[in-house]
Amino acid sequence: MQAPSVGGVMLPRGNGETVRLSRGASLTDFAEKINANPASLVAVMMNLGEMVTATQSVSDETLQILAGEMNYTVQIVSPEEEDRELLESFDIEFGEDEGGEEFLVARPPVVTVMGHVDHGKTRLLDAIRKTNVVAGEAGGITQHIGAYQVSTEVNEEERRITFIDTPGHEAFTAMRARGAKSTDIAILVVAANDGVMPQTIEALNHAKAADVPIVVAVNKIDVEGADPTKVRGQLTEYGLVAEEYGGDTMFVDISAKQGLNIENLLEAVVLTADAALDLRANPEQDAQGIAIESHLDRGRGAVSTVLVQRGTLRIGDTMVVGDAYGRVRAMLDDKGNNVEEATPSTPVLVLGLTNVPGAGDNFLVVDEDRTARQIAEKRAARERNAAFAKRTRRVSLEDLDKVLKAGEVQQLNLIIKGDASGSVEALESSLLQLDVGEEVDIRVLHRGVGAVTESDIDLATGSDAIVIGFNVRAAGRATQMAEREGVDVRYYSVIYQAIEEIEAALKGMLKPEYEEVELGTAEIREVFRSSKLGNIAGVLIRSGEVRRNTKARLIRDGKVVAENLNIEGLRRFKDDVTEIREGFEGGINLGNFNDIKVDDVIATYEMREKPRG
Ligand code: GDP
């Protein structure tokens, strides 16, 4: 059978077999799997009308189309699956409780507070924290570690609830997008004076998609014009029907400001958990869970708040968190107390990691330091590879000009962070005043005082922006994230240096302008006729130099009589030469052009890129 071809390119051809590729793989990765030449896959893509380089990371869809064309089936492996396989290779299973039913013990629910902006999420989290000083608990100063645990009495029983202390569904969604399920129950906060708003619906949809039961906190009932009944009516349309109307969603009217009915809300959370969920975990196994929030602490190094989901985490345990690892040196609870161990659903701040993990990274305790290191290193390597694949697609100052020439961007997006609002504004206005011609726009997407954060990098990633840090550095995982996403982050401490560098990059970014530069003139002294070459001009070089393969025009009596000629042949005596300088004689052949006369002048020139001033 003849090998199939597309446009003359021989195709590797499969028999429908399945090829596993990680998300964001390149044609080279694909070629490796099927033992083909990457160039042939590039050619196939070209024939399908897509220009793709061999090492560029391509979309799932592109991989599928390419595979279909060659009669393979592609199975895209998500990063989560890859990670599961990595852990399996160490004989570790993540996400399942070890042992059977008999090992499972009840654990507190983990709650996220969501809702429209300004409806009182932050205020509610504060109110819950305050109303709930566990009796007899040694009260240190409350620490913001990203999560806290409170206790409440329900049916004369003490029950605990863990709250994730970052309001809003962004954190929730970001974690879920990474396959980390952190939340058991969502409290949906709706201000009774404002009613259901767009982000209320958004939050509701996120909770539903994650299959997380919802308790509705109808807030701000102290405000005049508050209409809790209306909120119940509105939410009915979205499938949340209050218990008192025959539905199964608990609605609690509260005032976060006045601390009204907070206990009732906590009770509703516990009752909802009891009714809808079976929250149990094995506390006896090696601890597993997720990282909620992490940062680099000046005195303590990398610190990370982790939520234990199963097992018990103890001081001295060896743990891997994302691509960080280490031995637990110390643990602090949300009151700043040192603790020896943390059981399921307990958040603790962990000290002793090699570096700062990301929000939503999973953590697990392993038996040996070596295993922890190997898992962390493999994950880091995978991230680097993914970053490498992605990097080529982002804009950086170095490649601005290339990207622009390719017509990919016409505007430079910037995010400016600085140490003081004065310096940020000064930098912004100077940058906006840069005169860079009409082809390129500078747009400042975001400015602010403070460190370069993960959310800055997020924004830059989504809009191909360059981040400028003036007298500030990156915080938390921003640096790793920027590396992973290929975002160019530039740090400056002198304003004019920042301006100079951006200006220079922008000048490269502009489409080049060309100008004509005269190279030399030659006066025709004699015309030789050659049967083979046509007319040859015997010349004296009057100025500059004449070079072979440059452009020329012919001037007769001070007037241009022919344009766009080529110096095709150049000779001195019998030798072909590449150039003849001023004051020397030689022969010039203008190719097909034969209309030359004695005393004509041949002026040669070339087009040069004009430097921008
Ligand atoms: P978030 O954006 O959802 O976190 O909302 P905040 O917690 O920041 O609250 C927004 C504003 O509403 C703040 O000025 C709060 O003080 C106010 N607020 C929150 N809860 C109540 C409440 O129960 N009653 C009143 N009157 N104001 C409240």
UniProtKB/TrEMBL annotation:
GO terms for cellular component: cytosol. One of its GO terms (molecular function) is GTP binding. Pfam families: EF-G_D2, GTP_EFTU, IF-2, IF2_N. Transmembrane segments: none annotated. Its main location: cytoplasm. Gene3D superfamilies: P-loop containing nucleotide triphosphate hydrolases, Translation factors, Translation initiation factor IF- 2, domain 3. GTP binds at residues 115-122, 165-169, 219-222. Residues 106-277 form the Tr-type G domain. It is found in: Cytoplasm. Keywords: Cytoplasm, GTP-binding, Initiation factor, Nucleotide-binding, Protein biosynthesis. SUPFAM superfamilies: Initiation factor IF2/eIF5b, domain 3, P-loop containing nucleoside triphosphate hydrolases, Translation proteins. One of the essential components for the initiation of protein synthesis. Protects formylmethionyl-tRNA from spontaneous hydrolysis and promotes its binding to the 30S ribosomal subunits. Also involved in the hydrolysis of GTP during the formation of the 70S ribosomal complex. Belongs to the TRAFAC class translation factor GTPase superfamily. Classic translation factor GTPase family. IF-2 subfamily. HAMAP family: IF_2_B. This is Translation initiation factor IF-2. It comes from Streptomyces wuyuanensis. The lineage of its organism: Bacteria, Bacillati, Actinomycetota, Actinomycetes, Kitasatosporales. The gene is infB.
